[in-house]
Design brief:
The chain is mostly helical. The protein is built from 3 helices and no strands. It has one domain (about 10-95). It is elongated.
């Protein structure tokens, strides 16, 4: 059996790269420290799906190709990061209110 790059499915590599870039760009736009390389990949890939889905649902006209996908992926990652940060904030405020009640 002979192995060649021509038969290699590059879609997974492109998805991971695109997810990492999208997650990194979104975290920088929001001014956060990011989630590290793996965290940015996960946020970017999931954000890419969220962004693509929202663009289809809202029927937003975006350019085709790399830049259209990048815009929708970064937008989805921004939305995802916003909700993740909101959840972390709610957990911290809930924990601090429990501590203040315990001191009484």
């Amino acid at each position: 059996m002979e192995w060649s790059l021509g038969a290699f499915d590059w879609s997974l590599v492109v998805t991971i790269f695109f997810g990492a870039v999208s997650g990194y760009v979104a975290s920088r736009i929001l001014g956060g420290e990011g989630f590290g390389f793996l965290g940015n990949m996960v946020v970017g890939v999931i954000g890419g799906y969220v962004g693509s889905w929202l663009v289809k649902i809202a029927k937003v006209p975006l350019m085709d190709g790399f830049f259209g996908n990048l815009i929708s992926s970064v937008g989805g990652a921004i939305i995802l990061i916003f909700f993740l940060e909101l959840i972390k904030y709610m957990q911290r405020s809930n924990q601090s209110s429990k501590k203040s009640r315990a001191k009484r």
